[in-house]
Amino acid sequence: MTPRLSVVVPFYGVGEYLGDCLESIARQAWSDFEAILVDDGSPDDSAVVAKEFCARDSRFRLIQQDNAGPGPARDAGIREATGEYLAFVDGDDLVSTYGFAALVRTLDRTGSDIAGGNARRFNNSFGVRPSWLHKQPFARVRHATHVTEFPDLVLDRMLWNKVYRRSFWTEYGYTFPPIRYEDYPVALKAHLDAVTVDTITQAVYYWRERESGESITQQKFQLGNIRDRVTSAGMVLDLVEDAVPVVRRRTHAHLAQIDVLTLVSAFGSVPSEDEQALVDLSRELLDRLDEDVLAATHRYDRIQHAALRSGDVELLRRLADFRNSGGLRGGARAVPRPRRSRQLDYNYPGLGESAVPQALYKLRDQDLTLATSVREVSWVDGKLSVKGTAEIRHLETLRTSTLEVALAVGKTTYPLEVRRYDALDLHGDKTLVGFEVLLDQELLGECTGAPAHFEVRMRSGRRERKGMLGGQGPGSPGWPPGAWIDELNWIQPGPGKYGWFSLRRLTDPCRLTAVEQTADELVLHGRASFDEPELYLSRPVVGGEEEVPLEIDGRDFTARVPIQDILAAANHDDPFGQRTTRVFRMRGPERQQRVLLWTASDSAVSRVVDDRVVTLTRSTGGYVNLHESPIRTTAVSAVVEGNQLTVRGSEGRDVTFGWRRYLADSDEHLDVECRRTLTADGWSATVDVDALIPVTAVQVSVDPLAALADWILFATPPDGAAHAVQCEPFLCSRLPLAITHGTHGSHALAVRPHAGTLHVEVR
């Protein structure tokens, strides 16, 4: 029978990853597919991997051709495809188990021409993270929409996160140009041609990035690469020339934000003999973009645009170096304008020079906004301690400055006593930006209804700014612990709406109070907030639920979760971590529904069976999660004693440990071996902290807060396949851990979680 879905997989030189890619396709919940593998003249063993896979699974077949590029390879696969629907996968990426099923069923239901879903970035060192490029287009479910109704679809420039109706593809005769960046012209034209398009929020595609991370500085200059990017962008501009104004403007803005930025950043690495070619190519694209769009870009973008138009290559290189090495992350310190000390300028390259209009360096008063961050959240003697920083961007925080912090509950505010201290500001200086507030149980009891927030007001010199406390970024307290403030009320700190730091008061929540294990089961004890409770296990990623039988004594309950039932139902949500996540929901007789809150001990409960592990733990918001996954080497504690950092865990006894640092713009790395100790309780890995400080600690970034080194704890089993050690959620809730031992001199170190892995940052 003809399969309903054809999946085209072009590959070139990805032998290291191709097997995992094909396995992720084979494990699809949507099994009615064919996979056409196109060997685009691979110089490595990719074709061998593909042939072996095709021999094992008749749904896969291989065609081979001389190297012609990813576009022609896709075209070759399409010609062989027979399915009703068409999808694309790159040979080093992964597809989620339920992605194709969700997209095909959406198209079956709506009759749309295209269905697209969210994507994730992943690698071994940093785990899985959202794809910034896909965040806006797939923020919510939309059925039968169109790019003219939802212009953010112009950002959806990839082919591989979608399923196309084959009759639609054939009707318009899409083919790929024989260049790099071949996706965008085809993807955008399809959006314009489609009658309707569906979007879903589910992550359907996992997009691999290099181990050292993705950044503009890693896109090393190659003239052919840049020329193809400009050609692709020109084709996109041709497509929207006569499009409705909102689509045309959104496309121009996107090209200015992504493609022009990449071109001007390339001046940081362009060989001198190619400088003029880069100027010409960059101007070619810049000159086609709408002037109103360019005028609305970031001030630094406009400075680079002006330098490009003036042809000042030396300034373009300085501007690119400043940006590529992080000069904009903290916001450059403002400098007084000569002879006009009350007027301020951005201290960017080119200030005071003639190549760029100096008006572009002028710092407006509205640019001096309040910047806040949350640094530490803990409970001290029954009080909630919140430590953070507050400063006015671009300005030095004066010793005479004042800071007010208030708890905002609805329309009522409660002023807090503020303790201030010196901490690193956005410019890498120790100034009076740090603060701590303590909230006692009486004040926390005022939190009712909607989440409470913290209002911050700062005055420094003649300027006063106010805003809400926020700034929870990677490695900050994203998993803060909650606590009871009385017998019925639980306070849970954490990230809230708009990125504000919030406090949620949960009155008599449905909660887990204790966990025990038997030979075959996890036994959950808890209390419901209503009579006649029912307990359900649901899968938030893909839907579906099952009821868990309860033993009830009033509102107290006991639930037994058979380990083998969880293992037997394994069908992971995440193709990289191969983990399935379930959450517990309680329902009452009047249709009440509550998520089960974790109020048990401050450690997870795990059961290992063969090569899989079932773990009961907490989520970022403090709710109960049940994970099923392969055995992962997982850290459960990190302590510093003198000059030694020790990380401990339970699983992973047959591995060796080392802290790994990737070199700039490279997948090459340095390793510092740990001393491993095995006990009845598990393993420990110890390292001398001084060994993590680079011998030649050269600041490679103009970002004053950039780490001199970022170390990741790796475990290496006997087969040599090293993997990053996972950071258990309860350990995440106790991090970051500052290392302040005196032998480190002027260096500051901190143990932080990043996307589920354990890092040490050295500054």
Key terms for this structure?
single chain, 763 residues, alpha+beta, Spore Coat Polysaccharide Biosynthesis Protein SpsA, Chain A, Immunoglobulin-like, 5 domains, ten-stranded mixed β-sheet, seven-stranded antiparallel β-sheet, 47 strands
Rg estimate, integer Å = 28 Å
State the end-to-end CA separation. Answer: 61 Å
Mean pLDDT equals 90
Q: In total, how many beta strands? A: 47
CATH third-level topology of the largest domain? Spore Coat Polysaccharide Biosynthesis Protein SpsA, Chain A
Oligomer: single chain
How many domains make up the 3D coordinates? 5
The CATH architecture designation of the largest domain is: Alpha-Beta Complex
Q: Classify the beta-strand content into a percent band.
A: 35-45%
Q: Give the proportion of residues in helices.
A: 10-25%
Residue runs with pLDDT of under 50 for 5 or more positions? 214-219, 697-704
Major sheet details? 10 strands, mixed
* Count, helices: 16
Overview in brief:
With 763 residues, this protein is an alpha+beta fold. Helices cover 21% and strands 37% of the residues.
Please explain how this structure is put together:
With 763 residues, the protein is of the alpha+beta class. The chain folds into five domains: 204 residues, Spore Coat Polysaccharide Biosynthesis Protein SpsA, Chain A; 152 residues, no CATH class; 136 residues, Immunoglobulin-like (Sandwich), CATH 2.60.40; 120 residues, Immunoglobulin-like; 129 residues, Immunoglobulin-like, CATH 2.60.40. The protein has 16 helices and 47 strands. Strands 1, 2, 3, 4, 5, 6, 7, 8, 9 and 10 form a ten-stranded mixed sheet that branches. α1 runs parallel beside α2, α7 packs parallel to α8 and α9 runs antiparallel to α10. The chain is globular and about 70 Å long. About 2% of the residues have low confidence.
